Amino acid sequence: MSEAIVKFSIQKLNSLVLQESLVLSGLEDQIQSLITILDVIGGVYSIDFVTEEHYKFESRWFCRLKNIIQNMEDCIDEFIIQMENQSGSDHQTSLIDICRNELEKLKESLVELMNRMSQHKKEKEVKIEDPDTKESSSQAGEAETDETEAPTSPTPIKYYHISIPYYLRSCLMYCAIVPKEYGIAKGRLVRLLVAEGLILEKPGEIPEDIAEEYIKTLVGFGVLVADGTSTTFKVNEGLLEFLLGMMEQEDFIASCTSSDTNISPTTRRLSIHSDAKNIPTNLSSLPIQSLFLFGIGSLSDTEFDCLRPVFHGKKFLRVLDLERVHIKTLPDEVGDLIHLRYLNLNQANLNALPESINNLRNLQSLDVRFNNLKALSSGALNLVKLRHLQMLKHIGVAGVHLPAGIGSLKDLQTLTGIYAGGGIALELGQLTQLRKLGIMDLTEDDVNDVCESVMKMEGLISLSLEAKSSYPVKTLPSIEPFTPPPLLQKLHLEGTLSTLPNWFPLLENLNELRLGFTHLPEDPALVLQFLPNLKHLTLWHAHDAKTMGKEFCGVGGFPKLEVLVIASRVLEEWTELEEGAFPSLKYLHIRNCLKLRMLPEGLQHLTKVQELKLLPLHDELEERLKPDGGVEHYKIKNIPSINYITNSMVQQIAGARPAEGGA
């Protein structure tokens, strides 16, 4: 634990010295001295294997070390804030002297702790090496065991927890912040871990990639559980209660689940659940760095007043997650949160962002999807450290207009929900570091410039192109000539296509594809089944055909496909599947196929299918699939999970809804 928290702190300090070099110009020696001492402390307990005895021993020092490190980081953060507000050289010199003195005191505390830790470790090693001491200790231990008759070995869950490296435990505990009924999306978790500084960076590697490796490792351990599409994660239920207890013990986060929850005055991370009445009365005095609201919904003016201290006094705040909390307006004071790294306003019902948000020079992630924003102001170009910008205009489902000069944001990795007109399409070519791009309202006027720009993004792994909305259909311009980026893993095309682009066979690394409302005249599966790494395929009104046969997937076709989603209002029969088709399929979801009267013969041979969803299901097909005499039940009898709702049930539900303006 101590080694990891020291590495996190050294990483933060080195980053600050690099990014705030002008502001910290008078404190370089003090900060470098602190880094040197921290490096020594990190080596005191650097071991490869953690026993319960070591865990208990190190825990005694962990809280003390963590408190010193937090005070040290607070001191530097406060200094940066104060320097922002001072213009005169005399005042700045005074602030430097004050901060230098504070850091010297903290350095003395670190040195004292380092010496005590080293001495304690030496004494422990001497006791282990002394045969007499070892024997007496062993006898004492046996006597204690005989007297209490309690086992000395840790429970399997506890042992498993303490044996996981601290940086992975931090990642796991972060997953438990979200209420268990929600789960947390992978992208959201990755962005949070990076913003919190809970990633041990490696030279030449992107922090987000390291975060994904952490998640993959925890899933491999079985302590983190993925949903069927591997896009949302939850903590293993058998571990959750224990983990929540450890989070409280280590002061990782405090959760307000009722109005009488007692919140420690030293709380750094805070989550508020279910009701605005659970906002703690001492919120204004808490030194929080991360704040989450879950399941609260709309806030009245009075309830929002209880939240205002966040914007007025939380100068150390790094993470503010208000997803699905309707706050109507974002206070101008948000611009004072200069240490903010992560701001999630997804579905916050905002019509505009305050200009002051452009002061957030440390902001890495901004999520404003599903609001009523039409455009970003030119001030957004001040967000020079922005890595993830996620947008989507809610009303009309249209792209957000960007300011000219967006190409100057060289740290951007994610840029979604944008309108590419007005010269933006060409300017995107400057963002060669982009990894995820989502364009809406794509027109004939811009498609060639978009293609030219995207081909410069050699690291792009996700691309979404949506046609301009128009009645009765929206048509996607021809995406030719085009060569897809070599690392592309996810592709989403939305809008009518006259033919499948001829570059599709080049998508060797593609693992997720959605074709939405493309209404292709020819079956795209004739090409798609040969993509070697495709794992998730959504065909949402992709092909207008009344019948699908065995040509949809030949023997060995779709070799790695695990998730197949099909929606079609015209499909009536899926006649046949050859044995050996879809060798890896686990989840088959059939949506909006209102006329589908037949599931394919050969479905019974897909032995790896774990879940079948039919929403809705034709009433005639329901009769044939029933376990008590249904003539087609044999096709699905070995599938563990089957979910459906019939057409007639859908109509009954729709008929039961009150008329507009009714009670």
Topology readout:
Blueprint: H1 2-19, H2 28-44, H3 52-84, H4 89-129, H5 131-148, H6 156-163, H7 166-175, E1 184-185, H8 186-196, H9 207-221, E2 224-226, E3 232-235, H10 237-249, E4 254-256, E5 269-273, E6 290-294, H11 301-307, H12 309-313, E7 319-321, E8 342-344, E9 365-371, E10 388-393, E11 414-419, H13 424-427, E12 436-442, H14 444-454, E13 462-467, E14 490-494, E15 512-516, H15 525-528, E16 536-540, E17 547-548, E18 563-567, E19 573-574, E20 587-591, E21 611-617, H16 619-625, E22 641-646, H17 647-656
Parallel strand pairs: 4-5, 5-6, 6-7, 7-8, 8-9, 9-10, 10-11, 11-12, 12-13, 13-14, 14-15, 15-16, 16-18, 17-19, 18-20, 20-21, 21-22
Antiparallel strand pairs: 1-3, 2-3
Helix pairs in contact: 1-2, 1-3, 2-4, 3-4, 8-9
Keywords: Leucine-rich repeat, Nucleotide-binding, Plant defense, Repeat
Pfam families: LRR_14, Rx_N, WHD_DRP
InterPro entries: Leu-rich_rpt_typical-subtyp, LRR_dom_sf, LRR_R13L4/SHOC2-like, Rx_N, WHD_DRP
Q: Can you summarize the main beta sheet?
A: 17 strands, parallel
The quaternary structure here is single chain
State the helical fraction: 25-40%
**What is the residue-mean pLDDT, rounded to a whole number?**
87
**Overall radius of gyration:** 29 Å
**Beta fraction of the residues?**
15-25%
The chain-level structural class is alpha/beta
Number of strands: 22
**Low-pLDDT regions:** 133-154, 659-663
Describe the global form.
globular
Distance between the termini: 58 Å
The total count of helices amounts to 17
